[in-house]
Amino acid sequence: MTPAEMIQLVAQFGIPGVLVVVLTLIIHDPNRAEKIKALIFSPTHRLFRWGSKQYLAAKVGSTATEFLRRYLGKFLSNYANLNVAIRWVKSASDPILTQDGTLILCLEDTNDQTRNILAATRVALPHVVCPLLRSNLKDFAQSAIDLAVLQKLTDGLGRHARPVFQKYFLSPELGQSKDAAELFVKLVEIDARGLFVAIFLEELDVLGERLFDAGDVADRTIEVVAFLEFLLTLARRKIGEDIETRFVSNGFRVGVILVAKTRKAETQGVSPYLNAISFDVERGCESIYLIGFAPAVAFLKRLMDIVDGDTRFFVVKRKQVKIRPHAEEGASDSMIIALLRMNAVFSEATIADRIAESGLTVGDLVDGTVLDVSKNVCVVDVNGMTCSVYKTEASWNTINSCEDALSSRKAYKFIVKAIDKSNGRIELTRRVPTEDPWHLVSPPSIGDYIEVTFMDRRGTDFLTLSSEGLEVLVPREELTWLGIDTIDDEKVIGSKHIVFIYSNDDVAHEIKGSIRLTEHDPWPSIHKRLTKGAESRGTVTGVSSAGVSVRIEGGFVGIVPPESMTKAGFEYVDYQKNVVVGQGLDVVVTKVFIARRRIRFDLKRNVEAPSPDKK
User: Fold this and answer.
1) 7, 85, 105, 128: most buried, per Cβ within 10 A?
2) pLDDT tens profile 526-571
3) Which CATH code, of 2.40.50.140, 3.30.1330.10, 3.30.70.330, 3.20.20.70, is assigned to 530-608?
4) Based on the number of CB atoms within 10 Å of its own CB, is 505 exposed (0-12), middle (13-18) or buried (19 or more)?
């Protein structure tokens, strides 16, 4: 804050008003006191050199504290709320020298506090960044880690801070150790991809606590470097590249799951990711990181909402991380990293054991709550266990998506269809016998006429529903006597028709109906109407190696055979390339086949063309 800005603030609120604001800020966050002190002393220090020591101490302490809290405290689950406070030592007998946490630091009395801020932070880092692991790391590894953190602070201080960092910190330390220099470059690389603090330092903290509790002081530098190399493969991964996403060693038990918004995610939902989490757990992973880039953030939230209710895990954190994107990731400059840790209560029990303890058997009728619904798979909770329902088992009726039959957060009756203890999977079905439409209503008999609504297309059949909820299949050729080429699928879907039931399979629960059997066969009258040589202007409805389909007035569709097309010459020789759907053609009826229900046309130009032997 400049002197002019401070004067403007006082003029606006008055001295009492400014004091109230300051007091409120300090009560809300006591650590803000140092920052406010720096703002108060900044104008007088710049103009008159008054309060130099107070300004320097407040500026350095508040900047270091804010950086550590923002950069480390935001991502490290075990971060202690550290406050860096600068106090001036007046003599060797100063009482502050006997207090815990006191460090001796030489600061410069200068307007530019960059070096002082970096120096204070550098001294504090060993007490903040994986402090319990320091005794298990070689000096070069400790130095590289601290410098990687310090470079992040340098970037935040601005471009003018980089030469200071280079001259007084980076070059002196890295110049003495080639190993430290190589390690530093790798740490900076994973930091650019958001993995340094959120995963690397987080797991170093976990390792440090484990070793401290065990009284283990053995050197773990090689293992830490190996873990770093594992994270480098993640940082350098290209879209679609298959890499190792699990690192299990003596000290690390880490799994990484990359969450992407793909076709598979849209059709199968969270089920594959839940299986992947269970697979990592079975392979010994105690920390599981779920990483989702911007396009998959909403899908990751769906997944985390389900995992939150799984008693096997604790959701330790879920943070947004700024990253330097790869070229193929487009404009995405952030990602979400969520950390799951195993619940110690369930760490000894495998999924197979839990299934066995539940007493579930195939055929059991159970109550389940739907956790997630996608197109092909639905995830259901049954007594704390995650189960799957596939689309074909989500309803007695044929459906396009599980969402057509099941809703998230709702409870339903299910039957246990299959149990795979080796893979820890339970499959359910919604085909409960008491809800079977065939048992709830009397299916129509052969010869009955019923009204149906056309719902969808299923291969060569149309799926329809009766007013009582029974499915009736209507084969495409049973829609009309005039042939399938006359059918417009878009107009059929959603329409209602009376159908004649000509097949009823009680075993397969399959009913078939026909529209055309509700009418008289029109082909005898068509034969009389379309006499040989009758001319008509038609529209092309299809082009294939079998010829050109043409629709004429009255909705009748016939075919011009390939030999008739090539006989016409000109562009018709290569008719598959030059004739298009919708094009008009003048045709002549050459024959009506009553038994085959087919009309054959020729091109009018062929009929009118003079015979080659006539002059």
Assistant:
1) 128
2) 888 888 999 999 999 989 998 999 999 888 889 999 999 999 888 8
3) 2.40.50.140
4) exposed
Run of H or E residues at 223: helix 221-235
Higher local confidence (pLDDT), 261 or 374? 374
Rg, Å, the chain Cα set: 38
Superfamily for the 231-429 domain: Nucleic acid-binding proteins (2.40.50.140)
DSSP states of 294-360 as a string?
A: GGGHHHHHHHHHHHTT-TTEEEEEEEEEE----GGGTT--EEEEEEEEE-TTTTTS-HHHHHHHHT-
Q: How far apart are the first and last CA of the chain?
A: 106
Q: Give me the helix-helix angle, 178-192 and 139-157, nearest 10°.
A: 50
Rounded (to 5) percent helix, strand, coil in the chain: 45, 25, 35
Question: What is the pTM assigned to this prediction?
Answer: 0.62
* Number of neighbours of residue 54 by Cβ within 10 angstroms: 17
What letter represents residue 318's amino acid? R
* Sheet order of strands, 334-342 included: 246-248, 253-259, 287-293, 334-342, 313-322
Q: Are 437-518 and 530-608 in the same CATH fold?
A: yes
Q: Which residues contact 388 (CB under 8 A, 6 or more apart)?
A: 271, 377, 378, 379, 380, 425, 426, 427, 428
Token code pair at residue 138: 């070689």
- Per DSSP, the three-state class of 26 is helix
Indicate the CATH number for domain 437-518: 2.40.50.140
